[in-house]
Design brief:
Order of helices and strands: HHHHHHHHHHHEHHHHEH
Strand content: under 5%
Number of helices: 16
Helix content: 40-55%
Radius of gyration: 21 Å
Largest sheet: 2 strands, parallel
Number of domains: 2
CATH superfamily of the largest domain: Ankyrin repeat-containing domain
Strand order of the largest sheet: 1-2
Number of strands: 2
Length: about 300
C-alpha cells in the first residue's frame, strides 16, 4: 500500500489528489505540485460556511485574492474573520471538506492574502486549529508555513481531535517540513491522540530515515510505544525501505540501547501483552522512557480484542 493509502487522517484527509477549485493548474494548485493533497474547493466548502451569505462573500473574496474586499468585509463585521466550515452532524473532516479563511488562502497559494488576514487579526492557528499550517507544510516551498509559524502558529496544533501537523507531513516524507516544525518548538514525541502514533514511529514506518534522524536529534524517544504496541527501538531492528540505510539504522539502534530497558527491543505482541497486563513498565523502565500514551494504550487494547 502506498504512503497516501495508510491510516485515517483526523484533520485534513490528505490521502487523495486535489481536484477542481480556483487557480488550479492541471487539477493541482501551482504550489502543491509535489504532494497534491486534497484541498478545499467551492464545491466542498462554500455551502457549509457559517455567517450565512456574509460568510460566502468573504470566502469568495479570499479565493479571488481580493484583499481590499476582504478588509472591507471584515472591518464591517469583525466576526467574519472567524468564518469557517461547519460540518453536518456525523460528518468528519477530511478530503478537503473543512477549513477557515487562512486555510482557503493557503490552499490558493496566496501568501499576500495570508498576510492580509494576519494583519486583520486572524488567529495564526486558524479556526480549524493547525489545518492551514498543515497544508502550508505540504506546499512545494515552505514560505507559507514560515509565514504562519513566524506569526506564532502552534507547531503542534493543540485542538480537539486534531492530528499534529508533524504526523500529517510525515505521510508525505517531507524532512524539510519536519525540520521547520522542530525549529519552531514542535514536540518530537507528541503522539497522535487516537492511535498513539509517534512521529519517530511514523518516520520509521515510512522508511524516512532523514526525518527520523532529525527527530532523534531533537530528543525523540525511541522507547515511546506507538500504534498497536510498536516501539521505534524495535522498528530499528527491522529492515527499512531504503536498502542503503543499514549503517544509519545500526547507529541509531546503538544510541537507543539502555541498561534499564529490555534488549533486544520487544516486538508489538510482547509489548502489548506486558503493558496490558500491568507488568510493564516497571518504575525503572518508565524512568528510562519506556512509556505509552493514552492513544497507544487504546490502540493496544483494540489490537488485543479488549
Amino acid at each position: 500500500m502506498g504512503r497516501r493509502g495508510v491510516g485515517v487522517l483526523l484533520v485534513v484527509g490528505l490521502t487523495t489528489p486535489a481536484m477542481g477549485g480556483c487557480g488550479l493548474l492541471d487539477g493541482v494548485p501551482p504550489c502543491f505540485s509535489q504532494t497534491q493533497p486534497s484541498l478545499p474547493t467551492p464545491e466542498t466548502v462554500r455551502d457549509h460556511l457559517d455567517h450565512a451569505a456574509a460568510g460566502q462573500q468573504v470566502y469568495d473574496a479570499v479565493v479571488d485574492g481580493d484583499e481590499e474586499r476582504v478588509a472591507e468585509l471584515v472591518r464591517g463585521d469583525e466576526q467574519l474573520l472567524g468564518t469557517r466550515v461547519v460540518l453536518p452532524d456525523g460528518v468528519r473532516p477530511g478530503d478537503g471538506n473543512d477549513g477557515d479563511l487562512l486555510t482557503f488562502a493557503v490552499a490558493g497559494c496566496d501568501g499576500e492574502m495570508v498576510a492580509t488576514l494576519l494583519d486583520l487579526g486572524a488567529d495564526p492557528d486558524g479556526e480549524a486549529p493547525g489545518l492551514a499550517l498543515t497544508y502550508a507544510l505540504l506546499a512545494d516551498d515552505l514560505d507559507l508555513a514560515e509565514q504562519l509559524l513566524g506569526a506564532s502558529a502552534d507547531p503542534d496544533a493543540h485542538g480537539p481531535d486534531t492530528a499534529p501537523p508533524m504526523q500529517e507531513v510525515l505521510l508525505f516524507e517531507r524532512p524539510a517540513s519536519v525540520g521547520l516544525l522542530l525549529d519552531h518548538g514542535a514536540d518530537p514525541d507528541r503522539a497522535e491522540p487516537v492511535s498513539g502514533a509517534t512521529p519517530l514511529g511514523s518516520a520509521l514506518t515510512f522508511g524516512d530515515l532523514e526525518s527520523a534522524c532529525l527527530l532523534l536529534e531533537a530528543g525523540a524517544n525511541p522507547w515511546q510505544v506507538g500504534v498497536q504496541g510498536t516501539l521505534p527501538a524495535w522498528q530499528l531492528t527491522q529492515e527499512l525501505e531504503d536498502d542503503g540505510a543499514d549503517q544509519t539504522r545500526r547507529e541509531l539502534l546503538a544510541e537507543a540501547r539502555d541498561p534499564d530497558l529490555p534488549w533486544p527491543p520487544p516486538g508489538p505482541p510482547e509489548t502489548t501483552a506486558r503493558f496490558l497486563s500491568g507488568e510493564w513498565p516497571t518504575p525503572r523502565m518508565e524512568a528510562a522512557g519506556f512509556v505509552a500514551s493514552e492513544g497507544a494504550l487504546r490502540s493496544m487494547r483494540r489490537s488485543a480484542g479488549e
